[in-house]
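Shipment paperwork, digital attachment
Item: protein structure file
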Amino acid sequence: MATPQFELSDPPTDAISAIKFAPTSLRLLVASWDKNVYLYELIGTTGRRLQTLGHRAPVLDVCWGENEDEAYSVGLDWDVRKINLQNHAQTVISSHTAGAKSLAYSPPHKLLISASWDSTLHIHHTDDVTLAPSIIPLPSKPFSISLSPTKLVVAMASRAVHIYDLKSLAVLSSQNGALSTESPGNILELDPWQRRESSLKFMTRAVACMPNDSGYASSSIEGRVAVEWFDPSTESQKRKYAFKCHRQTSPEGVDVIYPVNALAFHPVHGTFASGGGDGFVALWDGVAKRRIRQYQRYPASVAAMAFSANGKFLAVAVSPGFEDGKEELGDGVVKVFVRELGEGEAKGKGPK
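Attachment content:
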């Protein structure tokens, strides 16, 4: 019997930028270039749209907040917005000076972190609205951010990677935010816990932290994924590696290389999924360095992915990545698929 996969009804009308499962339930937030954030709910093997939350400009990322009545969004209007999912109210909690690309929320530290093409991070203390957001300057434009239980990873242009300790970030930004209410200027010159150069030679598309807090994976436009560990010891750093993926051979025998747009770690097994411009999703055992499986080709480029909190569902958002050179969006190619994972489907295989 085939593992069920179904498609969400009423998908966005333009390219999808982000998709996030709720912390406990089977609700989904989807951000789109059509200037909306959508809220869906999975029921059995179907999904229905509950809300459409309009924005002023394309939305580039979305995340859940302290509970499932709270969400946050960022986009090309430069604003960081808090969304009340009960009454649909939106509140701007800070504004960047260029498009805001990425967003992440840390429940243990009550921190909301936004990253913008203005080459800054904004650190918001969501449990204390009297604290002004702290602004951390970055050396380059951030392309992707991800949180582990104790770390923040920021992947930037020029192959720069900064890793911050969340506890230190929370304490220092709190002190800075309190000072900023008394005097203007809330810049926080904070050295990261680690500075690294990406193992990938080409532009980073995505970064995702391991749920066990031991490291992270990153992907590039050049069909590669790198796996690294936080432990700075020489022995641990020798374990890091990169591998080729999401490459197809054309009818003419040419190796066609696609960007790896999305990464997502399984919350239970610690394996991870990669989604590429070739329309394929693959599951990997990062420790054993083995591919577990590859799913059937989706109808368009994989733009974003997310596992449910219980690890039983994988949501795959597809929309044109224009890898085929066509500039028109086309009808019916923006979709969200949800795959129900079989027992052990995402479990690692162990070493060869």
